[in-house]
Structure formats: C-alpha cells, structure tokens
Write a structure and sequence with these properties.
The protein is mostly helical. It has nine helices and no strands.
Length: 213
C-alpha cells in the first residue's frame, strides 16, 4: 500500500526539502549496505515509507544523481579526511554525500544552509560526535567549491581537517552498527520536526533557503 497519500502543499518548502534529505540519507545507507538497485529503493520508499511531507521531486533527484557522481563526491570526502570514505560510518558517509552533492551542484541553495542541514541530520541520526565530523567535512569541501560565497560570511576561516570516527567505534556504542536496517533503526534522537527554520546562531541558516530549497 502506497504511503505517499496526503497533501504537502501547505508544508513550508524548507521542511519538505529537509524531509527529502532525511529519506535520501536512509535510502543511500541501505543502498551502500545491501547493494539494492536505486529504482527498487525508490519504489520501496514510495510504497512503504511515510512520504506525504516529503519533497518527492527532490527526493528522486538526489537519490539518482548522487550515485551518478559518487566517484567525485567520495574523492572530496577522502581529501577532507585524508583517508578513504569507505572507512566511514555509513550514516555519516550518506550525510556527507548529500551535502557535498548540494555544495557542488545546487548553487541556488546557500552554502550555510547546506552545512546546517547536514549538521542537523547528523545530530538526529548519527553518533554523539557525528555532527562535528560532518561539519568538518562540509567546511573543507565548501572552502574548495564555494570559497567566494564563504569569503563574505563571518566566521568562515575554519578550514581544519575533519577527523572521522572509526567504524570500530560501533563496538563501543559510539557509532551506528553497520548491520542495522535503516527503515527500522535510523530514527531521530531528537524531534527535528520542531527545529526552528530561522537562524539561531552559529551553524543555523535555514531561513535563507525558504525560496530556493
């Protein structure tokens, strides 16, 4: 039974886009672990997931476009980390892949919005310190791909190398186990649906995406 029913036309575009990113993160997580075909994944999510508040067009675009650019995206991650992206926790890897794709291709979305979204998703679904790692990767790639935009923003001089949590940290409970199924176990640790869409300080710039995401 398809769960896409429902009218999301009244939902703010920013929230529908956020929900699309979350679903794509879950789909890429499953794709990485199970090697499920993208078309099959798309069908599975549309038929079994709650998609009524998701920007379906953006979900489909990201789901198919990111794997098509995966070689270049993973090279950017490896450069930021100074290690292979395959050594990452799969949740963090999926979040970084989405954010880097947006940084490199979606110039209609402000860089700070992309970074903030990546951090928000990492806080909700990653391990305790995932958001710091994701923030480091995003800043590294942003300085390389969107340096002109960053140069006019305050606090844009942080270009330190990101340090990735080791996959083996899963054994100590500090990272998500690779065997966990996304549809069942990738859940919010906090209610991000209630997060403010307005800037509230460092790393929060969602309001500028109100017309572009």
């Amino acid at each position: 039974m398809t769960k896409t029913a429902g009218n999301n036309s009244r939902m703010p575009k920013t929230r529908a886009r956020h929900n699309a990113r979350v679903k794509v993160m879950q789909a890429l997580y499953q794709w990485e672990l199970n090697d499920t075909g993208l078309k099959a994944l798309e069908t599975q999510f549309l038929e079994t997931q709650e998609m009524g508040r998701v920007d379906l067009e953006y979900f489909t675009t990201l789901l198919h476009a990111i794997p098509a650019e995966l070689t270049d995206i993973d090279a950017d991650i490896a450069e930021a980390l100074e290690r292979s992206s395959e050594q990452l926790d799969p949740i963090e890897q999926a979040i970084c892949r989405i954010g880097i794709y947006e940084l490199k291709t979606r110039h209609d979305i402000p860089v700070k919005v992309i970074i903030d979204e990546s951090i928000t998703i990492a806080k909700a679904f990653g391990s305790e310190n995932s958001f710091r790692f994701v923030n480091g990767v995003m800043n590294q790639v942003a300085h390389k791909t969107r340096s002109l935009e960053l140069s006019v923003l305050p606090g844009s001089n942080d270009s330190t190398k990101a340090t990735a949590p080791d996959k083996t940290a899963a054994a100590t409970g500090t990272s998500k186990p690779a065997s966990v199924k996304p549809a069942v176990s990738i859940r919010h640790k906090t209610d991000t649906a209630n997060a403010s869409e307005k800037p509230t300080g460092e790393g929060t710039h969602r309001s500028s995406d109100s017309t572009s995401r």
